[in-house]
């Protein structure tokens, strides 16, 4: 069920993004190409000018853009879901480009064929019409440039997060801002032993597969991936979003379930099944843009340090997931769960002790217990 919901959300997201962008892109093309054109064509008679209203190309171009957006969105979904991981980058880009080009010809042929019957559009759609039509290639050049812009926007939004990227564009983080966030430090257990067994090339593929599984579940729980550091991933939530539906806990157990569903794959390919440990904590911290040559968003504060230190305690307590008592008290767990305080520990570099609890769950039943 989660997998279906995940695919549905991804499809809707890609369709909405694509339809809105390409509808606006072709709307803009019509303005650039046709708005005020009649004022420039002095050779046309007033009667001919009346037969060339600006509204027609504007409507046709925008409709074609919406159609392109729909098909491009479906192609992007198929590519990201089924082809991206199976094909090499160069081959994948080539396949994706050919699919987009073919769909462009299809949409233009279908759309122009339809509109030429109801509007005074001078267009003859013979077989292979697009190969010799200069107007088509003028639009294609515009679409290529627009695709480049769209790709850059998508990469930036995925890198920083949609809301964060918009705030950065507005200069929101030029000066440090205080926010409340929850952080999870997620680290591979026995990473040194596994790395020695697999050696660096296969170990890199192993980590790649693990983080692929992580990416399969993060969106279901509203998590943002702040950064990858070797075999460690750092996840983050706005404070209330992390508390809602116990998202900050759910993502860990969903990640476990996702890996368990591919256990045979891991054992057959690597002869190793990955296990992860995590530490979670939340609270106020500062966020700001840093860097000039490589600009990124950075978080500064005790919350990050404490989350990392809590994760480091997992080995000492033979636990997969540790959470601070302060954060635990704000979560609404199932009534059948019986939280038990694990103890107060003095984390490395800290002057005050902090309470922590170990959380375990049965990935099949989904029940959460605290020991």
UniProtKB/TrEMBL annotation:
The keyword Transmembrane helix applies. Keywords: Membrane, Transmembrane, Transmembrane helix. It comes from the Bacteria. The chain crosses the membrane at residues 12-36, 56-79, 91-116, 136-157. Residues 182-311 form the Guanylate cyclase domain. InterPro entries: A/G_cyclase (IPR001054), Adenylyl/Guanylyl_Cyclase_3/4 (IPR050697), Nucleotide_cyclase (IPR029787). SUPFAM superfamilies: Nucleotide cyclase. PANTHER family: ADENYLATE CYCLASE, TERMINAL-DIFFERENTIATION SPECIFIC, ADENYLATE CYCLASE, TERMINAL-DIFFERENTIATION SPECIFIC-RELATED. This is Adenylate/guanylate cyclase domain-containing protein.
């Amino acid at each position: 069920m989660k997998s279906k919901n995940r695919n549905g959300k991804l499809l809707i997201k890609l369709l909405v993004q694509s339809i809105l962008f390409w509808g606006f892109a072709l709307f803009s093309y019509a303005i650039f190409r046709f708005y005020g054109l009649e004022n420039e064509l002095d050779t046309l008679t007033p009667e001919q000018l009346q037969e060339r209203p600006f509204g027609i190309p504007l409507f046709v171009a925008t409709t074609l853009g919406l159609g392109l957006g729909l098909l491009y969105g479906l192609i992007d979904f198929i590519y990201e879901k089924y082809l991206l991981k199976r094909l090499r980058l160069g081959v994948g880009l080539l396949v994706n480009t050919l699919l987009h080009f073919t769909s462009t010809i299809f949409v233009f042929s279908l759309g122009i064929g339809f509109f030429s019957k109801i509007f005074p559009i001078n267009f003859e759609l013979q077989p292979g019409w697009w190969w010799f039509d200069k107007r088509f290639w003028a639009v294609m050049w515009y679409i290529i440039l627009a695709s480049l812009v769209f790709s850059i926007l998508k990469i930036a939004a995925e890198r920083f997060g949609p809301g964060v990227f918009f705030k950065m564009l507005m200069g929101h983080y030029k000066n440090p801002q205080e926010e409340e966030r929850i952080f999870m430090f997620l680290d591979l257990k026995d990473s040194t032993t596994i790395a020695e067994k697999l050696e660096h090339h296969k170990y890199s593929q192993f980590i790649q597969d693990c983080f692929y599984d992580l990416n399969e579940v993060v969106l279901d729980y509203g998590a943002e991936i702040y950064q990858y550091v070797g075999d460690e991933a750092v996840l983050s939530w706005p404070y209330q979003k992390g508390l809602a539906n116990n998202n900050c806990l759910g993502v860990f157990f969903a990640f476990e379930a996702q890996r368990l569903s591919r256990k045979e794959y891991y054992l057959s390919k690597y002869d190793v099944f990955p296990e992860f440990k995590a530490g979670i904590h939340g609270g106020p911290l500062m966020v700001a843009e840093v860097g000039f040559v490589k600009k990124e968003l950075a978080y500064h504060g005790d919350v990050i340090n404490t989350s990392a230190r809590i994760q480091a305690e997992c080995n000492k307590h033979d636990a997969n997931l540790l959470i601070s008592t302060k954060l635990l008290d704000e979560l609404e767990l199932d009534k059948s769960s019986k939280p038990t305080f694990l103890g107060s520990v003095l984390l490395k570099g800290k002057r005050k002790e902090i309470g922590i609890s170990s959380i375990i769950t049965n990935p099949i039943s989904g029940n959460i217990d605290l020991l």
